[in-house]
Design brief:
Blueprint lengths: L1 E10 L6 E11 L4 E5 L6 H9 L5 E7 L2 E3 L5 H4 L2 E4 L13 H11 L6 H10 L16 H13 L5 E5 L7 H18 L2 E5 L3 H7 L2 E6 L2 E7 H6 L5 H10 L2
Parallel strand pairs: 3-8, 3-9, 6-7, 7-8
Antiparallel strand pairs: 1-2, 1-4, 4-5, 9-10
Length: 245
């Protein structure tokens, strides 16, 4: 479903350049959940933004379902991959009602006013329909993230890009959101790319994990490796040890 070859992202130029993502290549099968882990600033979110079409300064190649996509994308190409951001409050406009937030992707794609779909989208993520008339500050963090997931799913994309989707939530709520994501993946046969620094989240959700350091992948781990604590690079071992201290 996803094929990336020699992806580079460089900010600035000459002596002031910052090579954030360095010629990375990987693929993700249909229905698979790929995890990407690494310390802050290693390039994880920039990579995800490049896949989503939010970062246009990349070179290399990206293909979804066998079809190449460029830095400037058509509406149909943008519908293929939608993103769920880390902060469920910051990613929702504080002065827009929930129904407006859910309708916006459909309006942006020229698919009507979107309000008729808001109620259905809320039900699909376990929220009551009347939440469409509420503002983000009237919802809990977990409810806001459910709205963010509903907004990402309302265009029925085959690919969901998840940037630390539970890190801003209380531990008691994280499991609910992860279970919701797992259920949606199974029901819709979705393909996920999940960025996280939390190895317990990665182990729960992912079929395979790529370990990123300074813009490159230094290790690849299977679900069995995660369960057994097996690593193939010193940096991966450091991440494991730090996460379980």
């Amino acid at each position: 479903m996803i094929k990336v070859e020699n992806l580079d992202v460089v900010y600035g130029s000459k002596n002031a350049s910052n090579h954030v993502v360095r010629s990375v290549s990987f693929d993700v099968g249909r229905g698979e959940t790929l995890g990407i882990v690494g310390e802050s600033g290693c390039g994880k979110s920039t990579l995800l933004r490049s896949l989503a079409g939010l970062e246009r300064g990349w070179t290399g190649s990206i293909a979804f379902d066998g079809k190449p996509v460029g830095t400037a994308r058509s509406r149909e190409e943008l519908k293929l991959a939608q993103m769920v951001f880390q902060d469920p409050y910051g990613s929702l406009h504080p002065r827009h009602r929930i129904g407006t937030a859910l309708a916006e992707p459909l309006r942006a794609m020229g698919l009507g006013d979107g309000w008729s779909e808001a109620s259905r989208a809320l039900r699909q993520v376990g929220l009551p329909e009347h939440f469409a008339n509420r503002f983000p500050h009237e919802l809990s963090g977990g409810q806001r993230q459910r709205v963010a997931i509903a907004r990402a799913l309302i265009l029925s994309p085959p690919i969901l890009l998840l940037d630390e989707p539970t890190s801003a939530l209380d531990l008691s709520i994280q499991a609910e959101v992860l279970n919701l994501l797992a259920d949606q993946r199974e029901e819709r046969n979705l393909t996920y790319v999940l960025v996280s620094h939390d190895l317990s989240v990665i182990a729960h959700m992912c079929d395979r994990v790529l370990v990123m350091q300074n813009g490159i992948f230094v290790d690849e781990l299977t679900k069995a490796d995660l369960t057994e604590g097996v690593t193939h690079a010193a940096y991966s071992r450091e991440l494991f040890e730090a996460s379980f201290l």
